[in-house]
Amino acid sequence: MSLSQAGEDAHVVREYDTQKNTFLPDGFVLPSGKQSVTWVDADTLLVARDWGAGSAGLTQSGYPYSVRLLHRGQTLSQAVEIYRGKRTDMDVSPESLRDDKGHQLFLVSRHKDFFHTELRLFDPSTRTLSVLSLPEKYDSLSYFDGRLILHLLQDWSVGGRTINADSIVALDPQSPAQPQLVLSPTSRQTIGDGMGDAMAVTRDGLAVVLYDNVQPVLKLYRRNEAGEWTAHTISLPRNMAAEIVSSDPTLSQAYLQMEGFIQPPQLWGLDTASQSVRPIYRQPDLFEASGLTVEQMSATSVDGTAVPYFIVHPKDWQRDGVRPTLMTAYGGFGLSYLPVYHPDLGITWFNRGGVYVMANIRGGGEFGPVWHEAARREGRQKAYDDFAAVARDLIARHITSPRHLGLRGRSNGGLLAGVEFTQHPDLWNAAIIGVPLLDMMNYEQMAAGASWAAEYGSISEPGPRAFWEKMSPLQALKPGISYPEPFIFTSTRDDRVGPVHARRFAARLESLHLPFLYYEDVEGGHAGTVNAAEVAHERALEAIYLSRKLMDAP
């Protein structure tokens, strides 16, 4: 069990007895730190953590790069190192997989940067490692019938053929140069949401969540007697997000979580033997949604790219050009931005006539690695152009106007909000900038910033440096510009991005004698808040801000 102090990424690991519902008095206890742990057997762990600066501390990104075997009863100093990466890596972590026949794989992943990974097999009996010759860009590892299954994030030329990025392949770990193709999406499809919740193994085969134009579909794959993969497709409700939350390779059952903007989270049971799904449990509705509807629309960016977006609005609305509208997006790290149930928005925004828009801009993973790659490093302006294009599309459709249009973003989305705030101050009357990256000229020296150089480009490189000199929100603030009054929030305990970005941005606004609102929660880490009272408080501040800026009469 992992326990975090005030929501930090650093955490304590303790052994817990699920039968007696208590911590084991003589169980494993790993002190607080950024670490990863997996069982080897009942008395042995594979652990990656800070072992001390004198032996193997942390990478420049603030994550471990030494993996050691720790036996029950040993102190940390007695653990035996089985692999050490480099201090310039992002991190190194252990993992274990078990297939439907009980075979187990122990893996060590050396993350050279955010996207490139070297994978090694670990044999506990001989304590030896062997490198798996695989593409370095992949995610979502699974294990079925002795075959390692992975989602490719790059093209793979192997055995005289090329397997396209975004495909799923299965291979024998002992003979990885002979992969089988399981699934290859089209240009407007992708596997999952980019967070590794897209695949699950049961004793019958492989379940995959596929998104077709940002709409979920469930695919079930089985291997026939000839060893070929065959597919069965199950339709899922539209305008919702789906992820696989639990599965067991020895059973025919798995579980999906479904949720939408106006549908609370639901648990669905998947029976891979009968190839069927059914709702099992639905959380209660926390706001009145019968008068609301969700549509999917599309805008055209400056280079002609079609950018889809979801819009939540009253069923009986009129396009009068003055609808209070809140926009959001993420657009980074290949992560898809999908429908989420926000009770606070339901109560304070939807039920008061507000319109909500989620834009699926480039930089995310909505259409696979190509969609992400288009807005990486110096290409990132495409993401910012896409977001502005959606805003202009809303105005052109007579849904809203700049007087009634606001935006909200967190983390990388906070960077997006900061750029839109400085690039297009005339488009918005409200900007919520949350736990953000804003000083991009110095981000690599702040908290875990060095780990994102593969996404944003290193400032030590001429190309990214020239780009961020123009685009970094902190440096882009200029005197004599009429900016909307922003609401900036961060957390003192954010050990991922760090509060210094938000503080510097607020200080720069203050030096320019520009109005702003600033809130810093003393707890919460990068998640922003850790308990219901703090969540309610911070969201209430946002709701009052949005109401005054976008809903109140001029």
Plain-language structure description:
The protein is α+β, with helices and mostly antiparallel strands. It folds into three domains: 1-91 and 118-132, no CATH class; 134-284, Methylamine Dehydrogenase, Chain H (7 Propeller), CATH 2.130.10.120; 292-551, Alpha/Beta hydrolase fold, catalytic domain (Rossmann fold, 3-Layer(aba) Sandwich), CATH 3.40.50. Helices cover 16% and strands 38% of the residues. The strands form nine sheets. Strands 29-30-32-31-33-34-35-36 form an eight-stranded mixed sheet. Strand 12 and strand 13 form a beta hairpin. It is globular and about 75 Å long.
Largest sheet: 8 strands, mixed
CATH class membership of the largest domain: Alpha Beta
Gyration radius, in Å: 24 Å
CATH superfamily assignment of the largest domain? Answer: Alpha/Beta hydrolase fold, catalytic domain
* Content-based structural category: alpha+beta
The fraction of residues assigned to DSSP E strands is 35-45%
Which CATH architecture of the largest domain is right?
3-Layer(aba) Sandwich
The fold-level CATH name of the largest domain is Rossmann fold
Name the shape in a single word.
globular
Mean pLDDT over all positions? 95
Helical segment count: 9
- What is the domain total for the residues? 3
Low-confidence stretches: none
Helix amount: 10-25%
Number of strands: 36
Please state how the strands of the largest beta sheet are arranged side by side: 29-30-32-31-33-34-35-36
Distance between the termini: 52 Å
Topology:
Layout: E1 2-4, E2 11-14, E3 16-17, E4 22-23, E5 29-33, E6 36-41, E7 44-48, E8 66-71, E9 80-84, E10 91-98, E11 104-111, E12 117-123, E13 128-132, E14 138-144, E15 147-152, E16 156-158, E17 161-163, E18 168-172, E19 175-183, E20 189-191, E21 199-202, E22 205-212, E23 215-223, E24 229-235, E25 240-247, E26 253-260, E27 266-271, E28 276-282, E29 292-300, E30 306-314, E31 325-328, H1 343-348, E32 355-359, H2 369-373, H3 381-396, E33 405-410, H4 412-423, E34 430-434, H5 453-456, H6 462-471, H7 473-476, E35 486-491, H8 500-511, E36 517-521, H9 532-551
Parallel strand pairs: 31-32, 31-33, 33-34, 34-35, 35-36
Antiparallel strand pairs: 1-2, 2-5, 3-4, 6-7, 7-8, 8-9, 10-11, 11-12, 12-13, 14-15, 15-18, 16-17, 18-19, 20-22, 21-22, 22-23, 23-24, 25-26, 26-27, 27-28, 29-30, 30-32
